[in-house]
Amino acid sequence: MWVVRLGVMAKTFQGMSKADTRPGAFRDVKTYDATYNYIMDGETLYYRKTANDTGALICLISKVGSSMWNFLLLKAARAEQYPDPDGRFRTSGHLAVLPIKASPMTYEFAINNFKVPRFAIVKHPLARLLSGYLGKVINNPTPSLWPRAFDPNTKLAGLIETMGGLTEAETFKNHFRLQSDQCAGKQQGIKPWTFLRVEEMASWYEDLLCSLGLSQAAASGWDQFQNVNNDLEKGAEGRSENPAALPWNRTHQSCFVSLGCGCKVDCNNRCANDTRNVSVRHGTFHHSTPQMEMYYDYELAARANNWAHRDLQLFNYRPWYPGMTMAETLINPM
Question: The pTM is what?
Fold first, then answer.
């Protein structure tokens, strides 16, 4: 059963762009008008595999596995270049055009149709913040994505202090904006979002794939990402891994996500609840979580929790502090 939380604000649609609309075309974000036809982090996406699909509204957010989910959606919709003829993903899915486009009229129909599901994938804000810091400040410094006036020499503590002094959401790039300031915090029409917390992926993964028709696309063709596979924290056990022991190169996995009963998702015969959590393995998600104890002390975590209080409240997370497992932060777990 889906766990539904209520979002806020309404989505208004804009006019269609006259720019290049080829499937897979990669364009400057400034040329976009009807953003629901493009895969843009932080914006609502109206996804359909075929023109006859009812489809779904989807919210993907930077540092919540959006790059991999972009690839999966584009592959399932048979978008050109996803994957390339040799089976590899070389073109970023960010800002890609969806093969099945919607008009303002069809989008307006979708947001006011109770039969159209709405899925927003979210993550504990402190884990997501650390992921952004490690990815865009430490491992691949990208100053264009940093909050205004941030000095990287001040490290994670300086990043949190900088963001705490900036009150307007538009002063942040999406990687460091709260999820509640992006599409997940904006209710789409007459129906609230279904929030899917990545910490509970084992509980909702099959349902999401079957709802969107993604099971076949997810079953194989993901070998190029095998070197970054890692074990998801075991939500049922509340166990976190030692970062040094993570199996980055330990196994060969060709599917998008493997549950305890394997790679194949059979929509007519779901994986048993007691089997799902045995081992959850996937591509590039969730790397930062096992390292939280290394970067946050109690005082820094308290400051970060204060900054992220809107995310914590909207997505039903408890504040995280050193010594806690991520499972302990989940209010009303699935």
Answer: 0.82
